[in-house]
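Task: sequence design from structure.
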């Protein structure tokens, strides 16, 4: 029997039981749609983080406290390390050759209020170098100055979204906002930057002088009793000088922290590319997890196909006997039922692709807390979903097809 004839027979058989075929395909449709939607969201999160890092500026090295006794990324978590960096460390690093500037930074979450309005923001305590190194620009007013840092002024620069939430279209510069019961004078508003990390936009930040942050908002001390710094961003003159700068920073900090030769660093130094790599690894695992979770629906859909094909074999036992009696070979019967299973998967997969793509695009239009997660439906995700769905269809159809092919024609003709 020709392959085309087998396809025709398979399609006719499926159309003869439209409702049953549609319900069977539903599992595959939901499975493929879920795989495409969830993996697209994961891929979108990955690209959002990548774009955010690209916006943070080039040739930047980051220094953070590290717990040498904690493994891997755990050692960088504030929950597991002891603060070790200070503003004096940042000033020493600023004197390194090829370093254009440093921005010691502390951060925490807090509610910023104006009158009856409020907005949850990421509070950054930093220095004037923050503006240039982190590639922000001023929309109105001015940024914090060295004088503000030296005198611990209660002044604040608002991110674009925070300013919008609190003041709308009204000019914010010169007005006062409240943080933890203290009044801060708005001296500037940043231009929108976009990008997001873990649910917070880069426009959700506000910046205060780091000395004000340390003494009046969130006090944190090192083991020696100095005001602690959570991270230091270091801008390097060129990418060629990054490795030399990292070595010099390590030498300076080891000396300043009085570490013995056999002691591990109580700080970590990494580049923007390394930081991006870590986040991409995390989001990659997250994407795979979402895909695996959605694939459960595909397995359920495959079980549905196997079930309905077994029913079909039982219902068409006499038909199989007649076909064998008039000369159909085992491979013809096997091919027919495999094609029926594959057709169910292929059609269901096609509908699932369209549904998943539409759902991903719909989610991309939803704004939650000022953040839009752009789902990225890439060809590899579509190919993976379709390949898995067809594969599951074929695997699910093998047993029913082999059962049909092995039927004895005489017994099949006697079947009632």
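Answer:
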């Amino acid at each position: 029997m020709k392959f085309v004839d087998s396809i025709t027979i398979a399609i006719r058989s499926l159309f003869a039981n439209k409702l049953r075929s549609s319900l069977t395909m539903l599992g595959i449709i939901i499975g493929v749609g879920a795989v495409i939607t969830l993996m697209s969201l994961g891929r979108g999160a990955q690209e959002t983080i990548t774009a955010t890092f690209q916006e943070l500026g080039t040739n930047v090295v980051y220094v953070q406290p590290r717990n040498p006794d904690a493994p891997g990324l755990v050692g960088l978590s504030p929950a597991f390390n002891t603060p070790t960096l200070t503003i004096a460390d940042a000033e020493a690093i600023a004197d390194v050759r090829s370093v254009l500037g440093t921005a010691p930074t502390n951060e925490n979450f807090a509610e910023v209020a104006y009158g009856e309005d409020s907005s949850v923001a990421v509070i950054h305590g930093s220095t004037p170098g923050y503006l240039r190194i982190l590639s922000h620009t001023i929309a109105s007013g001015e940024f914090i100055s060295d004088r503000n840092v030296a005198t611990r002024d209660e002044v604040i620069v608002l991110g674009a979204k925070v300013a919008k939430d609190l003041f709308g279209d009204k000019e914010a510069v010169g007005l006062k906002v409240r943080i933890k019961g203290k009044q801060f004078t708005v001296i500037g508003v940043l231009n929108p930057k976009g990008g997001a990390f873990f649910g917070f936009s880069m426009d959700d930040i506000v910046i205060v002088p780091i000395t004000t942050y340390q003494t009046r908002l969130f006090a944190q001390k090192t083991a020696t009793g100095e005001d602690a710094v959570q991270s230091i961003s270091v801008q390097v003159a060129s990418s060629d000088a990054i490795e030399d700068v990292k070595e010099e920073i390590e030498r300076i900090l080891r000396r300043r922290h009085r570490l013995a030769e056999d002691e591990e660093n109580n700080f970590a130094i990494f580049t923007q590319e390394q930081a991006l790599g870590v986040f991409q690894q995390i989001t990659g695992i997250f994407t795979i997890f979402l895909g695996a979770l959605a694939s459960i629906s595909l397995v359920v859909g495959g079980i549905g196909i196997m079930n309905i094909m077994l029913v079909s074999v039982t219902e068409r036992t006499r038909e199989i006997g007649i076909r064998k009696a008039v000369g159909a070979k085992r491979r013809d019967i096997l091919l027919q039922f495999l094609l029926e299973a594959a057709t169910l998967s292929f059609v269901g997969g096609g509908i699932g692709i369209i549904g998943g793509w539409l759902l991903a695009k719909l989610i991309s239009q939803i704004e939650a807390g000022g953040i839009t997660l752009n789902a990225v439906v890439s060809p590899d995700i579509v190919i993976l979903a379709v390949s898995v769905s067809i594969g599951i269809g074929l695997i699910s159809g093998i047993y029913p097809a082999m059962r049909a092919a092995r039927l004895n024609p005489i017994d099949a003709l006697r079947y009632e």
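The chain has 13 helices and 14 strands.
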